[in-house]
Amino acid sequence: LRPDTCDVALCSCFNTRDLVRYSQVCRDTRRAVQSYSSQAFQLHRTLVNFMSVDEVRAFRQLMRETGTLISGSVAIHFFSRTDVGESGLDLYMEGDNAHNVAAFVQKLGYAYQPRMYQNQRIHNAIAHATSRYAIRDSAIYEMPAILDKFTFDREGTKIHLLVADLSAIDAILDFHSTVVMNIITHRAAYALYPQSTFKANMGICFDEDPINGDSSKYRERGWDLRCAVEDRACRSLHGEITNNERYVGDRYTWTINFDDRLVPSTSLAIMLMNR
Question: pTM to 2 decimals?
């Protein structure tokens, strides 16, 4: 069942933290939030700035075939249900699949924008980046898990292709902080640290230079980034920050599954405070 109009209007005003709290009031509000979420968490709503709905369908097929992942600011906007604004779309992939992804992005009308030291032709630039003779420049020096980054532009809207040294997931898990450890695949979206990122607005920072490094922009956006977390704070986050083994899709992960009609199924159980 679709949510009542008043539920849509009300739930759309809540941030993630308040949406979870509202779902805890009673059975009716929980049902309303679950119904609203099934409509709100749709990938094409987040990607509308970059491509059409029909192109999203083709893009998801490309993601399935190439193992391409979405992460970065756009993934945060997806889970937050906020407009992506001027954020670029960050796509992570292995080198063998970079040519196919680049060709798809160009078919969308995006033009390759090489940096000063990159080859002017995207095919040659990718071939060079994935060769053992590639030399890393300052633009990717602080991203050891990335072989190179390729930028495409269409009237000011940008899509970035980040080619991983090992695997796309390895590159994302090598990020500067837990805040950006959110992943969108062709079939599901995963937030590895939902309690801290979307409820507590904090994260663990691994940046060698937390003041001027890549993590600094997320601190400016309101996240409390820490190098360590006290035991009491860890307990309040229900175990998602731990020295024990974690994996994508475990019981601490907020998972939103998509189906072939682009209408996802979602459970807020992972975000509930009293499980």
Answer: 0.84
